[in-house]
Structure prediction request, 97 residues.
Amino acid sequence: MKKYVTVRYVAEILSCTPSAARKWLKRNNVHPLSLGVGRGLGLRWNLAEVEAVIAGAILVPKEKEEKKPRRLPLSQRPLEGRSLAEQLALINGGTVQ
Prediction:
């Protein structure tokens, strides 16, 4: 006999919210069975299909993108990377305006 589970059960397995689990099931073409309207009824998913999709899915956490390095302080910037005003200020020993 086939066993059917609720979206809350699938969400517990996936460690996510029920709405995220529902979207994940839809994205992976696992279709629900409607048991009708009423208390305790509603949509159920075949447990064997859910487990097969979970087993086939490669669950690799996303890697964080490297942030762009911040601009170096004026004293550490190379001369060719500076504006004309900064170059003149460096030569004259003054500050940049």
Remarks:
- The longest strand covers residues 43-46.
- The chain has a mean pLDDT of 82.
- The beta strands are 4-5, 33-34, 43-46.
- The radius of gyration is 29 Å.
